[in-house]
Amino acid sequence: MSSSPQDKAKTPEAFLDLKVKAPDTNSVGFAAIKSSVNQVSKYMNAADAFKLSAKINQKGGFDCPGCAWPDPDDERSSLGEYCENGIKAIAEEAQNKTIGAAFFAKHSVDELASWTDFEIGKSGRLAEPMFLAEGASHYQPIPWEDAFAKVGNHLNALNSPDEAVFYTSGRTTNEAAFLYQLFVREFGTSNLPDCSNMCHEASGIALSETLGIGKGSVTLDDLYKAEVVMVIGQNPGTNHPRMLTALEKCKKNGGKIIAINPVPEAGLIKFTNPQNPIKMLTGGTQIADVFVPISINGDVAFIKALLLKLLEKEEELGNVFDKSFIEEHTHGFETFISDLKTYNFEECLKASGVSKVIFDAVFDLILNNNKIICCWAMGLTQHQNAVDNIRELVNLLLLKGSIGKEGAGACPVRGHSNVQGDRTVGIWEAAPQAFLDKIEAKYGFKPTPKHGYSVIDAIKAMYEKKAKVFFGLGGNFISAVPDTYYSAQALANCNLTVHVSTKLNRSHLVTGKEALILPCLGRTEKDYQKSGVQIQSVENSMGVVSSTKGVLEPCSDKLLSEVAVVCGVAHATLKERSKINWLDYKDDYNLVRADIAEVVEGFDDYNNRVKQPAGFYLPNGARIRKFKTKTGKAQFSVNKLPTWKLKPGELMMMTIRSHDQFNTTIYGLNDRYRGIFNERRVVFMNPEDMRERGLKNEQIVNLKSVFNGVTRKVNRYKVVQYNIPKNCCATYFPEANPLVPLDSFAHTAKTPASKSIVVTVEVD
Ligand SMILES: Nc1nc2c(c(=O)[nH]1)N[C@H]1C(S)=C(S)[C@@H](COP(=O)(O)OP(=O)(O)OC[C@H]3O[C@@H](n4cnc5c(=O)[nH]c(N)nc54)[C@H](O)[C@@H]3O)O[C@H]1N2
Ligand SMILES: Nc1nc2c(c(=O)[nH]1)N[C@H]1C(S)=C(S)[C@@H](COP(=O)(O)OP(=O)(O)OC[C@H]3O[C@@H](n4cnc5c(=O)[nH]c(N)nc54)[C@H](O)[C@@H]3O)O[C@H]1N2
Ligand SMILES: [Mo]
After folding, report:
1. pLDDT at res. 37
2. Where is the Molybdopterin oxidoreductase domain (predicted)?
3. How much is the average pLDDT of 633-654?
4. CA separation for the pair 225, 227 (Å, rounded)
5. Given a cut of 80, is residue 98 above it in pLDDT?
6. What gap in Å lies between CA 115 and CA 682, rounded to an integer?
7. Does 78 score more than 50 pLDDT?
8. 237-251 average pLDDT score
9. Looking at the domain assignment, is residue 96 inside a domain?
10. How many angstroms is it from 133 CA to the middle of ligand 3?
11. Is pLDDT of 539 > 50?
12. Residue 25 phi/psi, 5° resolution?
């Protein structure tokens, strides 16, 4: 009998050989360079490695699939605009090893599911389309045309288009993403959940409401010119290493950095620029001027404490708030201030877990500077009150007039390399009507105005059998989503699950009754089509759209581009009833860009402008103080302190990334900066919390979360004593995802609260 979906979704509980060392306080440097070179040479030959490194993030080269951090507009480092973790991402994709019919004939789905995610990822690049028949134990090869027909037949057999779910992960290019959402809308649904739902959705919602655009307002140049940069809930040393170069530049210009994080992440404390040989010898730059060891989810309380003190000083001195900005450009100031006055400074500071000495150091910098940038990532967005976290930060920026001027603004640091672009071109389960009207005007069909499923709603719909087909354009749904075992059942309830992927992952193993793996080209590979080698385009975290073009030969001749896959599926599904000539697009992506230029705001003359070496900026109202909110002004907001209370014995747990992973892809088993080697099943704990529970270093424990009366459990973790605030602990994502309750999510944004999981720790 085959394993249950839950068994297949589970990551093996076996331990490796944990070695714990003192955490680093310095990121990058020689160790990083050595690590990246090892990484590349493990997977590919020297000539390919050289070709790649010369083109990463260069004008006319390819966009690094590692993260969404922008490239400098002007000069780019001749040593290559890349970082250790970008190299790992590329090495992972651009490898010579491939898997196809023989591999899948040898290994059953059950067997593959018993491997760790690290082992699954090491298998190699997917080389040909594969099909898992109902009840079968092994995948078998299937021709592309048959695979398309199978998807089409399943979709056409549904009672309603709303019974299908179309997920997107954020690596998909603008061209593929635009066509995909167009197909989904012509098919008749808005069920377009994406990784953004689990990532920066709260930022989009909070910023749209307060600044009138769901994106950040700063450019790289602003970061260089800021007087103060607050880096909140973000670990750039691992997840956006090139950001550290920008912070270093800011410091050189006299800027100060405040890092707000429960743990002293290495990159936040000190950074050695790998592209500056002199610094590498002399030891690097101190990054954070003030490090704030905040309690998990203490951010609204901390920012409120700052706001309260600013108000006090304003009342005393009269020159602390930017009154002309507030008057001319904002709305809701009085309501905001009268609500603020109902809070007590000491209570807020206590709730934040931060000492008065550290608070004062931060307050001084905020009080005495007016060009402030707030940068943040998952440490703010993956909480129940995530939207409040971000709105409260915006309140601070508005009081100081730090929006829409040089060296100031909001900077949500996006994750996947094109997650922002995907949303811009229409991957959105709740797209605005104006966008849908443009589609109707251009293509002559009426997209449904009904909002579709976000990730959480999609999981519930599949669990309840209201959705029966799951299609994933990239990503690793089962490992990325919360509540792993419930979600595994949701996928298993489907008639068909389909994944367009570059690498094997757990989502190919936790399947519906039937399943398809459709292998596609990666960023690094040349995309040959009828009209020649194609370029594609992406949008970075700061709203710059630029081209990306692969440099290596495809790893298999049976791969299709994502664009070709979408066109193939659309053609096979919609056939004569489509108003669109789907197959034309794949021959020449200029046709896709010409359509985007007509439908999506800001893309005029796309085909020419995308060829500009550094790309082009999309319009951004907040950047020029044109706020497209309901009132036409930037909006102050009223946010409450979170009300949760831990019961005796409980801890607040955050799930974080190690240094050797990209989301669910595990490159290696070390988390070098945090001093963890050769193990991922660790729980970082405060020494006092360990003492109270009688726990010793490396003791084996089980973790339990109870939410709304339901108990969730993961077994066999090793305790590691760590510099983390009392009552807080941390584990790695995705192994700890079975503990994240599906119903614990950010209000209005529905981002799973995967940084606020209430747990107890029990000896095994
Ligand atoms: N190498 C690499 N690069 C990546 C990724 C990757 O996995 N690997 N993933 C990409 C993606 S999709 C994303 S979204 C980004 C993620 O980038 P990050 O958001 O940096 O990633 P996380 O590991 O989730 O780290 C969250 C940080 O927030 C802190 N934190 C947690 N809870 C709180 C809190 O309540 N308050 C505060 N102030 N801090 C808190 C944690 O200690 C941690 O430092 O990175 C992108 N880039
Ligand atoms: N507990 C917890 N859960 C989390 C998070 C957390 O911090 N804690 N973070 C959340 C966040 S921020 C995010 S963004 C999601 C990530 O969720 P996803 O985006 O779904 O996951 P990834 O791990 O990035 O997806 C990796 C897979 O994408 C495929 N892939 C890679 N490159 C390409 C490509 O170019 N094209 C195609 N078609 N496929 C490709 C490969 O097959 C690879 O296995 O996870 C979320 N889940
Ligand atoms: Mo993300």
Report:
1. 56
2. 125-500
3. 97
4. 7
5. yes
6. 19
7. no
8. 91
9. no
10. 32
11. yes
12. -110, 0
Higher pLDDT, 539 or 82: 539
Whether 503 lines ligand 2, by a CB cut-off of 6 Å, is yes
Full domain range(s) for residue 707: 5-26+641-763
Report which of residues 285 and 579 the model is more confident about: 579
- The phi, psi pair for 126, rounded to 5°, reads -70, 130
Ligand 1 atom nearest to 236, measured from its CA: 20
654 lines ligand 1 (CB under 6 A): yes
At residue 613, does pLDDT exceed 90?
A: no
pLDDT band at 79 (very low <50, low <70, confident <90, very high): very low
Q: pLDDT of 720-731, one tens digit each?
A: 999 999 999 999
- On whether residue 506 sits in a domain, the answer given is no
For residues 267-304, one letter each, b for 16 or more C-beta atoms within 10 angstroms of the residue's C-beta and e for the rest, the string is: bbbbbbbbbbeebbeeebbebbbbbbbbbbbbbbbbbb
* CB 201 less than 6 A from any atom of ligand 2: no
- Starting from the CA of residue 751, give the closest ligand: 2
- Closest ligand 1 atom to residue 665 Cα is 7
pLDDT at position 693 is 97
Ligand 1 pocket test target in 654, 660, 673 with most atoms within 8 Å of CB: 654
Residue 657 Cβ inside 6 Å of ligand 1? The answer reads yes
CA quadruple 540, 546, 547, 550: dihedral, nearest 10: -40
Q: 171 alpha carbon to ligand 2 midpoint, in Å?
A: 9
523 lines ligand 2 (CB under 6 A): yes
Residue 56 is classified by DSSP as: B
Closest atom of ligand 1 to CA, residue 265: 44
Q: Is 67 in the pocket of ligand 1 (CB under 6 A)?
A: yes
Amino acid at 299: D
CATH number (domain holding residue 713): 2.40.40.20
**How many independent structural domains does the chain possess?**
2
Nearest ligand for residue 417 CA: 1
CB 623 within 8 A of CB 617: no
First and final C-alpha spacing in the chain:
29
Q: What is the mean pLDDT of residues 562-587?
A: 97
Residue 540 lies inside a defined structural domain of this protein: no
Give the burial class of 149: count Cβ atoms within 10 A of its Cβ; 0-12 exposed, 13-18 middle, 19 or more buried.
middle
Other C-beta atoms within 10 Å of 159: how many? 8
Q: Shortest CA distance to 755 belongs to which of 644, 680, 656?
A: 656
Q: Quick check: CB of 379 below 6 Å from ligand 1? A: yes
pLDDT band at 80 (very low <50, low <70, confident <90, very high): very low
Give pLDDT, residue 93.
79
| pLDDT at residue 741 greater than cutoff 60 | yes
Given 383, 412, 441, which residue is the final one in a domain?
412
Percent of the chain whose predicted confidence (pLDDT) is above 90:
85
Domain boundary among 378, 412, 446: 412
**Beta carbons within 8 Å of 716's beta carbon, 6+ residues apart:** 13, 15, 681, 700, 702, 764
Ligand 2 geometric centre to CA of 169 (Å): 6
* 3-state SS assignment for residue 758: strand
**Is pLDDT at 471 greater than 60 in this prediction?**
yes
Distance CA 257, CA 269 (A): 10
Q: Which residues surround ligand 3, an ion (CB under 5 A)?
A: 199, 415
Segment among 82-91, 322-331, 557-566, 683-692 with least mean pLDDT: 82-91
Mean pLDDT of the residues in the chain: 93
Predicted confidence band of residue 274 (pLDDT cuts 50, 70, 90): low
Name the packing angle between helices 455-463 and 484-492 (round to 10°).
Answer: 60
Distance from residue 118's CA to the centre of ligand 1 (Å): 20
Query: Does ligand 2 lie within 6 Å of residue 550's CB atom?
Result: no
Q: Which ligand is nearest to the CA of 733?
A: 2
Q: Is 690 in the pocket of ligand 1 (CB under 6 A)?
A: no
For ligand 2, say whether the CB of 546 is within 6 Å of any of its atoms.
no
**Is position 305 within any domain?**
yes
CATH of the domain at 316: 3.40.228.10
